[in-house]
Write a structure and sequence with these properties.
This protein has 647 residues and is α+β, with helices and mostly antiparallel strands. The chain is built from 24 helices and 21 strands. It is elongated and about 150 Å long.
């Protein structure tokens, strides 16, 4: 049936409407597509470019160069040496087990190295380079480079490793570095990314750890282009890190070397302070160890040798070791009485060889007693009863307070590991610690540096420097950081009566230089360099009444660990004190025999700036000293003097 005109117009309008709708839909689709393409190509271009580049560009951290350490004269004590190593990146390697197997066929690898690498690959981010082998020979580096296509993700690198050129002389001061451990990371609240690089070295003990953030520096970064096999094709850009700061210690390397050699294999320690500045010029513990053994991880055998040694070579005895100060504490007891106005220098006490206190007999070291003694004689002959009597008059509170004014029982700010506070006890301390009341007998024991009293060799050196100067001298170990001088620590006046201090110095003078003084055998002959000092012997065991009746067993006849500690403190020259010295010989017996000769020798070494003339020693000792000097010349290492500007 033929359509009418009206029907035809309606049909045409329907077709046009459909075409318009279809065309509009097409235009809308094309417009949306264009908008999306513009969004992706223009607005999101950087993001997609980055995603594309991540397939061929890697970001890698550049470990910073660790700051070096020098002595006060520019002698290098800790430095960085180039070290070839092989690293592997998990995200570039693919099948790491297969790659490591191929690497082991190309160069020698220990099974434990492969096992360690696999473990570190599992727990570390895929982009971090894992050290497979360190201190690699150049021949092995060449083999790895030639076989690079078969070793995706494996790269030879040149890194820096810590070296201690002075060896064992500075082991207890500097400490050492070692690879970052999980324990190290747990101690840090927000570890820097560079610390997560396996085998990255950080300070473990000593100055290396106490000044870690200053020495470490800040990591840099580099972008490298790699091919499909993960081989580095080129370096695109690099942002250098900030190297760590160089540190200069106050210690004199030559003097430190001499002191370490003089202590030899004794279980002993010695500290030398500059009385004017507080500078620590030598700080030695014996026996010592080679810190280079720890840098890449010490062997079980070597570590066992150190830990099983009864002389404790790993302990920094100068600041960690705590000992009863024995008779070296008598100056503190006397100063407490003098400052309180309870005695005069001419007041005397009778010593019959003991003192009865609360039904208990406290003995003097001299069984028959010293008779009537005044302040000077009591120190010169080290009479115990005189100080028992003083302490009872003064009381423990004033004695404890005076000890702290002289730097005992105080934790000094020295950047070394496990610096001990020591103990200057009082009534409140005993009540809090033991829940017991203080007794008069406790005061008597403390008066001669026994009982609860504990000090370190560093504290004894500080005490001696304060006695010599009348100032609150503090030990300074860091001389400068990146060339910036650190404040000296000579201290302000202690506020004590100068006449009382002069009396103590005079008493210490005759202790060494009077024929009846306990340290007369270790005096210095040269008048301008004479020293003043005090011997000390601290007991580590109780002597029973039965043993006293039968005769006290000599130290030489006891097992080593039950012998008395030997101590000596001194300052020199007497006229104008420059150096304060403290020496402790563990279980060495008497201070006059074991500690005083060592202190005299290292004091002379400091005064003369090198080997002193034989004329400075008593004539009876010169032959023995000459032999000793000859032996020490063979033992003492020669310091390598390289200034920072020559490094």
């Amino acid at each position: 049936m033929k359509k009418t005109r009206a029907e035809t117009d309606i049909s045409h309008r329907r077709i046009s409407r459909r075409a318009a709708l279809l065309g509009g839909a097409q235009l809308l689709f094309i417009g949306g597509l264009a908008a999306r393409m513009r969004f992706l190509q223009v607005e999101q271009a950087d993001q997609f470019r980055l995603l594309a580049e991540e397939n061929r560009i890697n970001m890698r951290l550049i470990p910073p160069s660790r700051g070096e350490v020098f002595d006060r004269n520019g002698v290098r004590l800790a430095q960085n040496a180039p070290s070839y190593r092989i690293v592997i990146v998990r995200e570039d390697a693919g099948d790491t087990d297969a790659v490591l197997d191929r690497l082991a066929r190309i160069m020698p690898l220990e099974p434990e190295d492969i096992a360690r690498t696999k473990e570190e690959l599992k727990r570390s981010p895929s982009f971090l380079p894992i050290t497979v082998a360190e201190d690699v020979r150049w021949e092995d580096i060449s083999r790895v480079s030639v076989n690079a296509p078969a070793l995706p993700g494996v790269t030879p690198e040149v890194g820096l490793s810590r070296v201690y050129p002075q060896g064992s002389d500075f082991a207890h001061v500097l400490g050492y570095v070692g690879p970052v451990s999980d324990y190290d990371l747990e101690k840090i609240e927000d570890p820097e990314p560079v610390l997560r690089i396996p085998r990255f070295q950080i300070g473990k003990v000593g100055v290396e750890t106490k000044l870690e953030t200053i020495l470490r520096g800040k990591a840099g970064a580099k972008r490298v282009e790699v091919n499909a096999a993960g081989r580095v094709m080129r370096e695109l850009d690099r942002r250098e890190g900030i190297p760590g700061s160089d540190i200069q210690l106050t210690i004199d390397a030559k003097l430190q070397g001499y002191v370490q050699a003089r202590l030899d294999q004794e279980s002993a320690s010695a500290v030398i302070l500059d009385c004017d500045s507080g500078d620590v010029l030598a700080c030695a513990s014996a026996p010592t160890f080679d810190p280079n053994l720890f840098v890449r991880g010490i062997s079980v055998k070597d570590y066992g040798t150190l830990t099983n040694n009864k002389y404790r070579p790993l302990a920094s005895k100068t600041v960690q070791g705590l000992y009863p100060p024995g008779s070296t504490f008598k100056m503190v007891t006397a100063m407490a009485a003098l400052e309180a106005g309870l005695i005069g220098p001419d007041d005397t006490v009778y010593c019959p060889g003991h003192l009865e206190v609360s039904g208990r007999r406290f003995h003097c070291w001299k069984r028959g007693g010293h008779g009537w003694v005044d302040l000077q004689t009591s120190l010169k002959r080290s009479c115990d009863v005189y100080y028992y009597d003083l302490a009872i008059k003064v009381g423990i509170e004033k004695v404890s307070e005076m000890a702290k004014r002289f730097g005992l029982g105080v934790k000094h700010d020295v950047p070394m590991s496990a610096v001990a506070q020591g103990l200057a006890p009082n009534m409140e301390w005993k009540r809090q610690t033991y829940g017991q009341s203080w007794r008069v007998g406790d005061t008597v024991n403390v008066s001669i540096g026994q009982g609860f009293m504990l000090t370190s060799p560093m504290q004894l050196a500080v005490m001696t420097a304060r006695l010599a100067t009348g100032r609150s001298v503090e030990p300074r170990l860091i001389k400068s950081i990146d060339g910036v001088e650190q404040p000296e620590r000579g201290g302000e006046s202690l506020g004590m009566n100068e006449n009382n201090l002069r009396k103590m110095r005079r008493a210490m003078d005759v202790t060494v230089n009077d024929r009846r003084g306990t340290a007369y055998g270790s005096r210095i002959i040269e008048d301008e360099m004479r020293m003043a000092g005090k011997t000390g012997t601290s007991q580590v065991r109780n002597i029973t009444a039965a043993e006293r009746r039968a005769g006290v067993i000599r130290n030489e006849d006891l097992p080593w660990e039950r012998r008395d500690h030997a101590l000596f403190v001194n300052f020199a020259p007497i006229a104008k004190p420059k150096y304060a010295v403290a020496v402790v010989v563990e279980h060495g017996g008497g201070g006059s025999k074991a500690a005083a000769p060592i202190a005299r020798d290292i004091t002379l070494q400091a005064l003369y700036g090198g080997q002193p003339p034989l004329e400075a020693y008593p004539s009876k000792d010169r032959e023995r000293i000459e032999e000793l000097q000859e032996r020490l010349r063979g033992v003492q290492p020669q310091a390598s003097f390289v200034g920072r500007d020559q490094a």
